[in-house]
Amino acid sequence: MTLRPRDMSGHPPAIAPAYRSSRLRGPTQAPIAIPATPTETTGPVFGHGVLGPLDGDLIRNFAAPGQMAIGQRTIVHGRVTDEAGRAVPNTLVEVWQANAGGRYRHAKEGYLAPLDPNFGGCGRVMTDDQGRYRFETVKPGAYPWPNGGNDWRPAHIHFSVFGSGFGQRLITQMYFEGDPLVARCPIAQSIPAGGAERLVAPLDWEETVPMDARAYRFDIILRGPLATPFEATP
Amino acid sequence: MTQRESPSQTAGPYVHIGLMPNHAGLPGLYDGDLGAGPIMAEGQPVTLRGRILDGEGASVTDAVLEVWQADGTGTPGIWARRSTDGPDGDWVLDTVRPGPMRFDGGWMAPHIALWIVARGINLGLQTRIYFPEDDHSADAVLAQVPPGRRRTLMAVPDADGYRFDIHLQGPDETVFLNI
Fold first, then answer.
1. Is A104 designated active site?
2. Which of A40, A71, A149, A209 is 20 to 30 Å from B125 at the Cα level?
3. Where along the chain is composition biased (Low complexity) (chain A) (predicted)?
4. Which residue in A11, A20, A158, A169 is the catalytic one?
5. Would you call B120 and A37 a contact, using CB atoms and an 8 Å cutoff?
6. ipTM of the complex model
7. How many CB pairs under 8 A join A and B?
8. What CATH number corresponds to the domain at position B116?
9. 8 Å CB contact of B169 and A52
10. Which of A27, A196, A220 sits opposite B173 (nearest CB)?
11. Which of A33, A62, A195 sits opposite B178 (nearest CB)?
């Protein structure tokens, strides 16, 4: 498989001035287009064996025995596909997030909201043979962050996805339907042409578990193959 | 059926929680951090180290860097993950020297692919490390890089291996690749 050239217009620019940290960290020169070689079309492969039984359960994977994280019980699920619409099976999806109060469990994080002793904020799952994944967590809280003004991050979950080639590697963030902070967030709004909407997960009523947890659906699209005349159309 | 790649977003300042929780002080979640173990592969051992520098020359100490490379025979298969959150921001990679790799009827010079994410980086940055002693004349990727900027992709020999500093901006801005 050789990769279709990346459509940079769908991604935030390297320097998005309203996101202060990008001003000194975003490269000023355009990336140089290269052909996808075996270095880009191959990548690490992880077996389902790397997963522990609670890796996809952020409500319990850091909790004391018999305890659970505090917060709104939430199921996140979706499909990983490529630009050609094909499932990306058996690929590793890593997630991390703040707790229900908007506090990360990180040494450099100092927000007023308290840590939850039963919440780590880290999990991972693999997609199945149809590219589907699912994990359970508590809905993260919004939080203020230093960006030069009164800036608040909308509730979000960070996603890291591998795909089958190193050139497909992607990190992104999932937002929640109906959150008014998405429109005010310099990071979300750094995506051109209202593209932040593509990262807003809708409430998935059908998957909501009565008397238990609400579900949100977040589909992820990785870069896909360059079409060839020999490629069958499904 | 054609659809667009999902938009990228920054990994943020707390990326270590998600990608290397043991290193980030969240023990007990995973047996070990992926990509942190010693590299066992065929080839001549080599040590690379470096740091990531921002537009004011400050060391970026909250990045995660991933490595993907061939072993000594030119077969891709070595993946590693490193952080730059030590006091001076240095990352260190004890690996093997990659062999040349077949591509498009020719040979690519030995190289190590890097992918860098951090707060303030909106789309993961892809670049490559090459070794200055090798013959680069037939490399299809370097051929796309203006000659005056190719030196930014060359490792620099030092006392115990090579150094490779990544400049996000400035006169020595590293060449990043749109793969």
1. yes
2. A149
3. 26-44
4. A158
5. no
6. 0.97
7. 244
8. 2.60.130.10
9. no
10. A27
11. A33
Q: Looking at the domain assignment, is residue A16 inside a domain?
A: no
Is the four-CA dihedral A93, A139, B19, B55 of positive or negative sign? Answer: positive
CB A153 within 8 A of CB A180: no
Determine whether A158 is an active site residue: yes
- Tens-digit pLDDT string for chain A (234 aa): 688 889 999 999 999 999 999 999 999 999 999 999 999 999 999 998 999 999 999 999 999 999 999 999 999 999 999 999 999 999 999 999 999 999 999 999 999 999 999 999 999 999 999 999 999 999 999 999 999 999 999 999 999 999 999 999 999 999 999 999 999 999 999 999 999 999 999 999 999 999 999 999 999 999 998 765 444 444
Is B110:B97 a contact under the CB 8 Å cutoff? yes
The answer to whether the CB of A58 falls within 8 A of the CB of B30 is: no
Q: Which residues contact B137 (CB under 8 A, 6 or more apart)?
A: none
* Structure tokens given for B94: 């004890």
Tell me whether residue B5 is in a domain: no
Q: Domain holding A145: CATH number?
A: 2.60.130.10
